[in-house]
């Protein structure tokens, strides 16, 4: 039961995050895109990253999916 619960949550996270990043890149939506830029010059060091909104939404959706899965698979009270 614990492995299935983990599998439901993790797969929901991966699929939701991947879809949101893909939609962001497909339709050029800045807050759904992940940019990574690394620049190392002689005198400076520069790092840039992108939006983490799809990551946060993926965590939220995996939490909800896990709770629904646990609720649906509870043993009925007798």
How would you sum up this structure, described in words?
The longest helix is centred in the first third of the chain and has 26 residues. Helix 1 packs antiparallel against helix 2. With 78 residues, the chain is mainly alpha-helical. The chain is 59% helix and 10% strand. Strand 1 and strand 2 form a beta hairpin. The chain contains two helices and two strands, in the order αββα. It has a two-stranded antiparallel ribbon with strand order 1-2. The chain starts with a helix and ends in a 6-residue tail after the last helix.
Low-pLDDT segments, ≥5 res: none
Shape: elongated
Estimated helix fraction: 55-70%
Count of alpha and pi helical runs: 2
How do the strands line up in the largest sheet? 1-2
The H-and-E topology, N to C, reads as: HEEH
Would you tell me the structural class of the helices and strands? mainly alpha
What is the terminal-to-terminal distance? 21 Å
State Rg: 18 Å
- Number-wise, the strands total 2
The percentage of residues in β strands lies in: 5-15%
Largest sheet: 2 strands, antiparallel
Mean pLDDT: 89
């Amino acid at each position: 039961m614990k492995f299935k619960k983990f599998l439901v949550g993790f797969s929901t996270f991966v699929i939701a995050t991947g879809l949101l990043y893909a939609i962001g890149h497909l339709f050029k939506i800045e807050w759904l895109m992940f940019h990574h830029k690394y620049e190392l010059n002689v005198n400076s060091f520069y790092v840039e990253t992108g939006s983490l909104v799809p990551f946060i939404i993926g965590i939220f959706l995996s939490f909800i999916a896990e709770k629904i899965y646990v609720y649906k698979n509870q043993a009925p009270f007798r």
